[in-house]
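Dear Dr. V.,

Thank you for agreeing to look over these. As mentioned in my earlier message, I'm a first-year student in the group and I'm still getting used to reading structure tokens, so any feedback on how I've presented them would be very welcome. I ran two proteins. I've put each sequence directly above its structure. The first is here:
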Amino acid sequence: MDSLLDRLNEAVHFIRQRTDFQPEFGIILGTGLGNLVSHIDIVAEINYHLIPHFQVSTVESHSGKLIFGSIGDKKVVAMQGRFHYYEGYTMEEVVFPVRTMKLLGIKRLFISNAAGSLNSNIEKGDLMILRDHINLQPSNPLIGPNEYDLGPRFPDLFRCYDENLIETAMSIARDNNIRCHKGVYVSVPGPNLETPAEYNYLHIIGGDAVGMSTVPEVLAAVHMGLPVFAISVITDKGYPMEEIEPVTVDDVIAVAKEAEPKMTLILQKLIAQL
């Protein structure tokens, strides 16, 4: 059976046959947040289903393309659509694109997601930059034989979110009058949203926002030595209890799309300053 490195090298070889574009930064676009692509000067697009060992995103608003191009003078590769554990994929499959982008040469990873607030001060439509996380996913992409060519057996997560990127992004938000917070993201498997009791529990254990993604990709990135910046668009309230309302995926996408220009501005300016 092919090893993980064999599969990664096969994917990288396929991509490099179709474009010699060399990205500096990788971007993962979350639910309802794919429009950042309109700000990329695109030089190449590859559908996921064509790339060896890539999966196909099955979620609404996740287009399923790898986009190569520039934001200003910075070269990027963007995942327009991500994979989730709840879609039935293994954690290795969920993070395979992150590992592929690392082998393509990216030096930093930027991640976006849609999340629910667990903090009474964080409102619907606000942004939250991840300063830390709590991982409640039922599995971990680092379980199994370790590929030492990718990273160490026991990667440290003391500062898994880049502090310089966090502070620069917060400064950009302040300069542009954008409501933006720093907080702790709780990653849960989904796909159901939480009960009121579960929201309360996640608040009690220290969460400021909850979502169904991001942490697996962060674990894979940290394992490979990639600095990470992650940002959430807050699409609904899970705390305090009296502010919880029924939510549909259409509601989430609508709020994400409305708040997306603020997130896009921060990411554009942050990447431009690197």
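The second protein is here, in the same arrangement:
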Amino acid sequence: MAIGPDRRRMYRLVMAALAAGLLAAVIVAVVVGAAGMSPGQTLRALGGLISSGRGARGSFPSWAPGLLLDLRLPRIVLAMVVGAALSTAGTTFQGVFRNPLADPYLLGVSAGAGLGATIAIIWKPLSGLGFYSIPATAFVGAVLAAFLVYRLATFGGHTSGVSLLLSGVAVGSTLTAIMSFFMVATEYDLRTVMVWLMGGLTTATWNKIFMALPAVAIGFIYMMTRARRMNLLLMGEERAQELGVDSQRTRRNLMIAAALTTAAAVAFSGLIGFIGLMVPHIMRLLVGPDHRRLLPACALFGALLLLVADTVARTVIAPAEIPVGIITAATGGPFFLYLLRHRKGI
């Protein structure tokens, strides 16, 4: 897929703008909050934290560095990791299925990961395995959900966009219902369950980041190594096979990679929808369909978008919070309807 000089220039400008926007969003997310500190105090506390506490005595509350290190910074980093994971997974699903509506949430992959995590939480033999039980079962659930949707939507070797979408919605709804039933039946706190189902980053910790980041990085690196093959799949399976691509194997492996990143996100953030749907479409308009450039752009924009959404979620009605999944659904729902109405032949 040839890239002209104008497209390369546009790509560099977009990446620079995204990097600058992400940096600005990080600064805003660090500064704003319900802790009662002024922006100046917050920045001085951050400077004191970076310099190992050698800040001006009395220029910020004594508890401020701990607040930033243990609460605000982990949440910011986890928002970026989850946003990048969901957006790159959505990009891969759209490329693999050649369907603009493919997305981890709509395809039921997020619900599969959520059900796996729920089982690990409520089933004592699994919860006794320690910190790794939730990510592991979330990954298994995501992979099984992805293949189940794919098999249900495939007839005679052909997967149509409509059948894929309907299968994903049906499987996702069923898995979410099972997940809710398990939580209620085992007498878990219903409010906590509902907040988790709506998606949130309130429980972010550095340990969770250290668990999620390697999985997201491995999935992203694999997607990048298969970006050229994804480009060929866009031309159709027969054409891709003529050019030496094993389409079935490539599709299967990319589905596993996308499920891995989705599971890493859902295991620690709950169900956050539509990031994987919106981001690839917007970036495709700006940088083109070449996955070698589209995937990095989506990772940056996904991190930026979810960080902004989470900052709004925790500040708009402070000191109370809105689950970030509500924010993404409020913007992603209308975007989804727009795609359904204006895209032909889906």
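From my reading of the second output: Residues 274 and 331 are 8 Å apart (CA to CA). The chain has one domain: 68-342. Does that match how you would interpret it?

Kind regards,
E.
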